[in-house]
Write a structure and sequence with these properties.
649 residues, alpha/beta, ABC transporter transmembrane region fold, Rossmann fold, 3 domains, six-stranded mixed beta sheet, four-stranded antiparallel beta sheet, 24 helices
Length: 649
């Protein structure tokens, strides 16, 4: 039976491939071609960046053309030396026409001079080509980075909620360089080498058609090999980009939270985590480089076989009847090296194109994200009263889990409303919807009777001052941080806002005053000082609506009392929404709204809610009978109320 099976297998082995097998092969070839075309479609999206630098592109093309022509001319002086100077044959027509009546020593000098001249000029043009292509690539990367930066600023907070800062930094600083690599080391060399290979192949065929056919016989095999391994390089390059991004993410997290790392003595744990990412990056890099080296090795081996076969046939042509002279054979051999050199370089350029495609894909992923909704021609009110109305508002987390469930809330102009509740009930989400950080899934939010979704987004946010639990301080001076959001503010306005926030005396105690650098994230300031900078910003903004998102939850009692004195002045005359967890800070609010499971459970004054014995009373009991940090916490400041600010559109 085994013999029969072997016989059947042998008989089937000699049968012609079935139509289905041929179809499968055709599909495989077409799929491979499609895989190779995919990067071209990807890079086509960046054609406008190339079009913006047509001048540099033209200079690069001229240098490329000159380099190609000199590559073609370089072997011919050697042919003159071998055939005419040493062999005694008549000089070629292009020498006789240019230099008549030359003896052999003079002809040798001319040929040598031409060799040196073409060599030097070729190097000069190659240098120009490199300079122009590098400059072209850098300018494209600069434009790409700026556009990507603009795109990142246009994305909604939902995108940032699911993204890592370290990964985004990697994309904008490292992945964008892939565009320069593909221009400088990919398409430009590819164009040069392709043009050179075509020109040399034509010259070889002109010398001897049969030798030309032999010389290019292995080119289709080289093309197929290049298509296969370059796609494999792209697959592994994706893994390399992901691994390197992991390094950025880990380093960004650890260095940004270095105080926590040190306080918990987690240096060794974080080192091991970083080493894992570093090892993954190393392994991915080695895989890419090994595959690239293998591709180059096979390409050069095939090219070497092609050169050897063509040289053998060329030598036979010299020996077998003088179809070629020795000098022409040397030119032919030089052209063979010049032919297969570009072909191997084409393979290298294809590797760069595929490797860079993995990085560019990560850039395109950002550009393909949906922008934060900005309504064209949105409404700008001439006068802002400050009334805010939530009408049956629903919203969800990214996974579809409800956060707010049919919230209806009306806030009168100048009213101070505190929103309280346990963690995760949607307090911050409620005010984030007013700022349009997120979009409501149902219902409407009105400002002075107008749906905020119909308003100009930039204008809307200019009407709202936000003081966060963790104030955002940028590296720079105190004056620059206070004026953030009002870069046109003059020094007098900055000082006035600082005085209102009880910050001026502290600033003047510093050697640099308002020009004092605060360090990255304001590390040179205390928590209370950072919060006062945020309050000064809000004073300077002069917005009619104020949002306070747990502004003192991380401060000690003394600092909290001082901060609330500033906040009382800031809230005077403004429509104010206070998000609070500690109930002692909201007792004197005009109204307290209690959120439970995304719904408004009850609303009223502090005394009324305690008397009702509902959700607020239970929260109060859980926290214990507390006294507010200031007798006037979020209450009216003594004397006449401050007038409500009005902003023109």
């Amino acid at each position: 039976m085994a013999v029969i099976r072997r016989a059947r297998g042998s008989r089937h082995a000699h049968q012609k491939p079935r139509p289905s097998a041929r179809r499968d092969l055709s599909r495989a070839v077409l799929a491979k071609i499609e895989q190779c075309r995919a990067p071209l479609r990807l890079y086509a999206r960046f054609a406008p960046y190339l079009g913006a630098e047509l001048y540099l592109l033209g200079l690069t093309a001229v240098a490329m053309l000159g380099t190609t022509l000199l590559t073609l001319a370089r072997p011919w002086p050697m042919q003159v030396i071998v055939d005419s100077v040493l062999g005694g044959r008549p000089a070629p027509w292009w020498i006789s026409w240019s230099f008549r009546g030359l003896d052999r020593p003079a002809l040798l000098a001319v040929a040598t001079g031409l060799m040196i001249g073409t060599l030097l000029l070729g190097h000069v043009l190659a240098l120009c080509e490199q300079y122009f292509s590098q400059l072209l690539g850098q300018r494209m990367v600069r434009r790409l980075r700026c556009d990507l930066y603009v795109k990142l600023q246009r994305l909604s907070l939902r995108f940032y909620d699911r993204s890592s800062v370290g990964d985004l930094i990697h994309r904008i600083t490292v992945d964008t360089v892939g565009l320069q690599d593909v221009v400088t080391y990919g398409f430009v060399p590819l164009a040069v080498q392709f043009l050179t290979a075509i020109a040399i192949a034509g010259t070889v065929f002109a010398l001897d058609a049969r030798l030309g056919a032999a010389a290019v016989a292995l080119v289709p095999l080289l093309v197929l090999w290049t298509m296969w391994f370059s796609e494999a390089v792209r697959r592994h390059a994706r893994g390399l980009a992901t691994a390197e991004s992991g390094l950025y993410v880990t380093a960004s997290e650890v260095l940004g939270g270095i105080r926590a790392v040190k306080s918990f003595a987690m240096e060794e744990v974080e080192l091991r985590r970083f080493e894992r990412h570093a090892r993954s990056s190393q392994e991915a890099y080695v895989r890419v480089m090994t595959l690239s080296a293998l591709g180059a090795l096979v390409t050069e081996a095939l090219a070497g076989v092609g050169v050897a076969v063509a040289v053998y046939l060329g030598a036979r042509a010299v020996l077998g009847g003088g179809r070629l002279t020795v000098g022409e054979l040397l030119v032919f051999i030089a052209y063979l090296h010049s032919l297969y050199g570009p072909i191997t370089q084409v393979a290298a350029s294809a590797t760069v194109i595929q490797r860079s495609a993995a990085s560019i894909e990560r850039v395109v992923q950002i550009f393909d994200q949906e922008d934060e909704y900005v309504r064209p021609g949105g409404i700008r009110l001439k006068r802002v009263e400050g009334s805010v109305s939530y009408q049956d508002v629903w919203t969800t987390y990214g996974d579809g889990q409800p956060v707010l469930r049919g919230v209806t809330l009306d806030v009168a102009p100048g009213e101070r409303v505190a929103v309280v509740g346990r963690s995760g009930v949607g307090k911050t989400t409620l005010v984030s919807l007013l700022l349009r950080f997120y979009g409501a899934r149902g219902g409407r939010i009105l400002l002075d009777g107008h749906d905020v979704e119909t308003m100009d987004l930039t204008w809307l946010r200019q009407q709202i001052a936000l003081v966060l639990q963790e104030p955002i301080i940028f590296s720079g001076t105190l004056a620059e941080n206070i004026a953030y959001g009002r870069p046109d503010a003059n020094p007098a306005e900055v000082v006035a806002a600082s005085r209102a926030a009880d910050l001026h005396e502290f600033v003047m105690s510093l050697p640099g005053g308002y020009d004092t650098a605060v360090g990255e994230r304001g590390v040179r300031l205390s928590g209370g000082e950072r919060q006062r900078v945020a309050i000064a910003r809000a004073f300077l903004k002069k917005a009619p609506i104020l949002i306070l998102d747990e502004p003192t939850s991380n401060l000690d009692a003394t600092t909290e009392r001082q901060i609330f004195e500033s906040l009382d002045r800031l809230a005077g005359g403004r429509t104010t929404l206070l998000i609070a967890h500690r109930l002692a800070t909201v007792q004197r609010a005009d109204r307290i709204v209690v959120l439970v499971d995304g719904r408004i459970a009850e609303s009223g004054t502090h005394a009324a809610l305690l008397t009702a014995g509902g959700a607020y009373a239970r929260l109060w009991e859980d926290q214990g009978a507390q006294r507010p940090p200031s007798g006037e916490s979020l209450g009216r400041v003594a004397g006449e109320p401050l007038p409500r600010p009005r902003l023109a559109g």
